[in-house]
Design goal:
heterodimer, A: about 200 residues, alpha+beta, 5 strands, extended, B: about 325 residues, mainly alpha, two-stranded antiparallel ribbon, globular
């Protein structure tokens, strides 16, 4: 009987966490929109999401023992994220093109690549992270890492320009009228490979 | 009066949480996750070191993902823990990553044949979690569901009767109520997953007019089918979008009823097969099908047979396993 009580207590806590984090993500999706809900829901969702975050200890200091314990458990159980995949709408995707300039004036174009489709899905996930992060420094660092991986394959290259853009997908009707996926410029980074430091960040 | 009500509630809750179950579902989960971990490892065999290296020789160094994880928690497993052992063992990072990959594949084989089930499940969970967390920027939904599945598998009462462990060690039967509890945990978790997935999709206009189905199918890197072919099926997209929303949001209701469970389970598995085939997300499709079939598959036909008979029959617990009593 004692084992049953322990199991039932764990069950309640575990699913309370899953439910709470899923609710929080749903509120965040509504707050960020666009959804079919009226615009007035946005501010409510934002406030509710903040309240849920406070209850879940997400506003405590990162070094706080309660928060650390909670975060550890969430990661161990694989329940640290919600389940709003492709919701409320399917987002666009991103593309990163490297322009390689050689000492002899030659210019080549390269895309980041991996050797299997399974790894390709992971690469797409990385590009999504680069595209969606609000932190410029993180974006720049990740692009730089990818540029360095390209440089290893082309050691004689002099400079690398990384051009990051989003892919705008046509609707069915637009596709029928001849429109195809288009590439919209978002950021460019110049890497001079003598000192490996990124240059101008344009938008 | 209140005490009586509370006692009745507690009894009902325990009946729901601890139903007597056979270990068939656990066999499905062990085998399914064994295949999943094996395919996961094999699909990344050529890119494993490239994706997960912490040095500049990788695609993006794992050090950044691990540093960000460290801010959140010091105790989440990561490959850096293994790599830090390198100098003590006289092994370089590449060698340690390769050993981790071999161990992960070994754990998958252990799960498949049912040898050292618990150890294999813990090892598979730990190594997969290390890879998923160290490659944080490179992980996606499949990693979450693999972690969830392996977490429940390693906590479940292993080994099951179909495992090699069972045959070699001549073990006694596991507590059927504990088996039922862990199956219930998996069932409830799936209900929450589909409910929130369906609910958030319902909030997007694109799922009601079918434009999200089109976008999902033409969005790189999921664009497996030529859009020229897809566009001929444009009238199917709104139906498919609404069908997906209703299927997911209705899952927590219709999966429990014996009348609708079979059709819901088949439909949800068909949806995942569709995702796997049309979007190239084979691993994602497989793990979702495994979790669904393990949670709601075993006992489906037996349940119908029981209900069509004169009355409900209870499982009897014998030393050699579980049987349905003769009528």
């Amino acid at each position: 009987m004692r084992q049953k009580y322990v199991c039932a207590s764990w069950f309640a806590l575990h699913f309370l966490l899953i439910f709470s984090f899923s609710c929080r993500e749903t509120l965040l999706l509504v707050a960020q929109g666009p959804t079919i809900l009226p615009a007035s829901f946005k501010s409510f969702s934002k406030k509710a999401e903040t309240a849920v975050s406070v209850v879940l200890g997400q506003h405590l200091a990162a070094s706080n023992a309660i928060r650390q314990t909670l975060v550890t458990y969430l990661h161990l159980a694989g329940i640290e994220t919600g389940y709003g995949y492709f919701a409320p709408n399917v987002p666009g995707s991103y593309k990163l093109v490297f322009e390689l300039r050689y000492p002899d004036g030659r210019v080549e174009y390269e895309l980041p690549s991996v050797s299997s489709p399974a790894a390709g899905l992971r690469l797409a996930s990385l590009l999504d992270t680069i595209g969606r992060t609000p932190y410029d420094a993180l974006r720049e660092h990740l692009v730089k890492m990818l540029a360095l991986s390209i440089r290893r394959e082309h050691p004689e290259v002099k400079t690398i320009r990384a051009v990051f853009g989003s892919i705008a997908l046509p609707s069915v009707r637009e596709f029928e009228h001849g429109k195809r996926a288009s590439y919209t410029f978002l950021y460019a980074y110049d890497f001079s490979l003598q000192n490996e430091s990124p240059g101008a960040d344009d938008r | 009066m209140i005490a009586k009500l509370l006692r009745a509630f507690r009894e009902q809750l325990f009946v729901f949480l601890f139903p007597a179950e056979t270990d068939n579902w656990l066999t499905v989960l062990r085998l399914g996750l064994g295949f999943q971990v094996a395919f996961y490892s094999l699909s990344l065999r050529n890119d494993w070191n490239y994706l997960l290296s912490g040095t500049a020789s990788g695609l993006v160094t794992c050090n950044l993902a691990e540093a960000l994880l460290l801010v959140e928690s010091h105790f989440v497993p990561r490959l850096g823990w293994l790599v830090d052992l390198g100098p003590h063992l006289g092994l370089r990072e590449e060698a340690l990553l390769s050993i981790a990959w071999i161990c992960l594949l070994g754990a998958a084989c252990g799960l498949l044949i049912g040898l050292a089930c618990r150890l294999s499940a813990i090892l598979a969970w730990f190594l997969h979690l290390c890879a998923a967390k160290s490659g944080g920027f490179l992980s996606y939904g499949v990693d979450n569901f693999m972690t969830v599945g392996l977490f429940y598998l390693m906590l479940s009462p292993l080994p099951d009767r179909c495992s090699l462990d069972w045959r070699l060690r001549e073990l006694s039967s596991k507590n059927p109520q504990l088996l039922g509890f862990w199956r219930r945990v998996l069932q409830i978790h799936l209900c929450l997953i589909y409910f929130f997935s369906g609910f958030t999709k319902c909030l997007g206009s694109g799922w009601w007019d079918g434009s999200n189905v089109w976008r999902a199918l033409v969005r790189p890197p999921f664009n497996m089918i030529d859009p020229e072919i897809l566009v001929q099926w444009k009238y199917v997209f709104p139906v498919a979008g609404i069908f997906i929303c209703l299927l997911e949001i209705g899952y927590p209701v219709f999966i429990w009823s014996s009348k609708t469970r079979k059709i819901w389970l088949i439909s949800i598995c068909a949806m995942h097969v569709g995702i796997g085939v049309t979007m190239g997300m084979y691993l994602f499709a497989l793990v979702m099908i495994v979790l669904n079939v393990a949670a709601f598959g075993p006992g489906l036909s037996a349940q119908r047979a029981c209900e069509s008979a004169s009355g409900p029959r209870k499982l009897s617990y014998k030393s050699e396993g579980w049987t349905l009593p003769r009528q």
